[in-house]
Model the fold of this input.
Amino acid sequence: MDLRQLTDEQLALRARSEPRVAFEILFERYRGPLYNFILRQGADEARADDLFQVTFFKVFRALASFREEARFKTWLYTIAINAVNDDRRSAQRRGTTTEIRDTMLVGEPVLGQHEEVACVKAALEHVSPRHRQLFALVRFQGMPIAEAARLVGMTPSAAKVTLFRTTKRIGELLAPVRENES
Done:
């Protein structure tokens, strides 16, 4: 039987008895999306590597507690969000800050978009970390709003309003740049 055909949930349950192969498949499936999610939370590449490894280490250790009725993706991102939040609190105690970088945005900026990238970065700098997490989960990871809202500790209706306001604000900041291109 090819384990790659199993769902994430089936693999997580299978990883309890055959951890090496099943967990490797889950790791490969989520390597890119989870790493990009962590980058979009404000971590530099070295810190994102560390947080990615911490997240998967915690996932591996907690596989026995994975519930059959849960979605693996939601469970994984919950662990990642907790790791990012723990790291952010630790950084605040140390007095360090995180700046928004181009790697947090979708795709690579192309020639002529530097002003637009700067505007998006400026908008994201004014978004709270929790709202940034919500925005990244929904817009970049394709998670349903209700599910992402639960992960960041919001109600679905509050999440919808937050996403609307964040998107609208970024659009307002980008409007002058787009007008200049016309």
Notes: The mean pLDDT is 82. Helices lie at 8-14, 19-40, 45-62, 72-94, 114-125, 129-140, 145-152, 156-181. The chain has two domains: 1-98, 106-182. Residues 1-98 form a domain with the Rna Polymerase Sigma Factor; Chain: A fold (CATH 1.10.1740.10).
